[in-house]
Structure formats: structure tokens, C-alpha cells
Amino acid sequence: MTNTARTETARAERATGVRRAAHERLSTGALAGWARVCTRHPWRVIASWIAIIGLLIVLVGTIGGSLRDKFTIPGSDTQRATDLIKAQFAVKQGSVLNLVFAAPPGQRLDTPARKAAIEHYLKNTAADFAPAEQAELARHVLTILNDLVFADLFAPGSRAEVPIVGRLAREGAPAFTVAGQVDRLAVTGDSVLIADYKTDRTLPSDPAAVPDRYVGQLALYRAVLQRVYPGKTIRTALIFTGGPTVIELPGAALDAALAR
Fold first, then answer.
1. What 8-state DSSP symbol labels residue 209?
2. How far is Cα 78 from Cα 108, in angstroms, rounded to an integer?
3. Domains along the chain with CATH numbers
4. CA atoms 43, 45, 46, 50: torsion sign
5. Higher per-residue pLDDT: 95 or 243
6. Distance CA 191, CA 158 (A)
7. What are phi and psi of 78, to 5 degrees?
8. Does position 218 have pLDDT exceeding 90, yes or no?
């Protein structure tokens, strides 16, 4: 509202002795004028907006290009790493290789004949891998399967991807639920063996160097299995595939982790 309009309104209110409410006063200015036009001709306003939206759709379809979800940052370390992976390992992206090797009970897989059979199988099945990579896969398989401490984990009767579910209670604290899945489990005459695969690039040198979260995870699994298999010793291990390295976790470390 301009100064002149305010003055005239004030004079009218003084002359009549009646002061108008704010919503009864007539606003002035460009914005107020545009609002009155829209109010008087609502269908024209709606038709105008529909026409504008239609025009925008036509423009986007003709000169707007297309949506892309691929982004690059030239010169960055991330981009160089991405380009290297695509150049060197493009054929392996998204692939999964599940292989199972087993020897007869009481026998080993690292005999010359069986080692040659594994290498021959990998040559045919993992043809996309270079010979050096196939040899490394065979080495990983033989190293883990020939670990005498946990050989039963891969013996006949052992199980893979076993759900572990149970409720645990600690003194002075409410009971809580444990739900997870252990990669390997084997039940023998006097013990239960469990192991979890880990793909860490940095390999721990001994049980004391194992990350606390892994120790805590197996401590919970062990506590649940102690209730399922009373009287049996529950032994736990981590299989670090990058070595490969098999590390058994001592019971004292598991007990300490569960107490925390």
C-alpha cells in the first residue's frame, strides 16, 4: 500500500470513526493487482500453468538430453583406481566362484595326484582367471583344508552357513537375543568346532591382534552353543582368506569378551 493510499484510508477511518480490520483493507501494488487478476479469472490461470508445464515437458523431451547415473572425477585417486579395476579385472566383475573339494575320511588333499586334480578343475572351471590366479586359488584351498587343527570343519558331516539363535542372560542385566550365522560348524565326539570367514586385507599375526568385534561375535556364538551342546568343548576359529590364515581364539579371550 502506498503512502497516499494509507493517508486516504486513515482519513476515512477518522471521518467515520470506524477502523477497518486488516483483511478488509484494499491492498495496492503489483503483487496485489496480480492476486486480484488470478482471483477473478481462476480457470485462465489454471490453463496457463497447464500450458507452461506442457511446454516444459516438450522442451525436456527435445533438447533436455537424458538422465545419467554414471559419474567420473577425472584425475582423482578414486577415478584412477576405478579405471584400473575395470582394465585389469573387468571380466571378473560380479562373478561368484563356489568350489567344494573333499578327500576321503582320514586322507589329505595335498597329495601330488589330488593337487593336480584340483589344478585341472580350476583350469577348466575358472578359465577367466590367469594361470597365476588359478594357482593361488589352489594354494588357498589346500592351506585351509589341510589345517590339522580344524580339518573336521570340512570333513563329511560338517555343515556350512549354520544359523545361531538363542537368548543369553548376564548377572545384573536383562536377557538379550543372539541371532547370526556361522560359516562352518562340525560336531565331533567331545567338541563342537565353528569358524567364520573374514576377508580383511590386513591379517592379524596372532589371536591377540584379532579385532575385538570378531572376538565378541564368536564369543556370543560360543555361549549359545554351550547351551545347545552341554558337556562338549566349543572351539572357535577365524579363517582369514587373504592369507589364508586360520586363527583359533582361546577360551579366556572369549570369556573376557562376553563379560564386557
1. G
2. 44
3. 3-61 (no CATH), 96-146 (no CATH), 149-259 (3.90.320.10)
4. positive
5. 243
6. 13
7. -60, -40
8. yes
- Residue 240, judged by CB atoms within 10 A of its CB (0-12, 13-18, 19+), counts as buried
Q: Are 196 and 182 in contact (CB under 8 A)?
A: yes
Confidence at residue 68, expressed as pLDDT on a 0 to 100 scale: 62
> Structure pTM?
0.52
**Could you give the CA distance from residue 62 to residue 50 in angstroms, rounded to a whole number?**
19
State the number of CA atoms in the 13 A half-sphere of 158 facing the CB: 23
Where helices occur in the chain by DSSP H, the ranges are: 3-16, 30-40, 42-63, 77-89, 112-125, 131-145, 212-228, 251-259
DSSP state, residue 208: G
Q: Is-contact 115 103, C-beta < 8 A?
A: no
Residue 227 has pLDDT above 50, yes or no: yes
For the chain, what percent of residues have pLDDT higher than 70? 67
3-class secondary structure, 70: coil
Q: How far apart are CA 245 and CA 50, in angstroms?
A: 67
- Digit-coded pLDDT (tens) for 41-63: 888 888 888 999 988 888 777 77
pLDDT of residue 96: 47
Q: State the cell numbers at 91.
A: 571380466
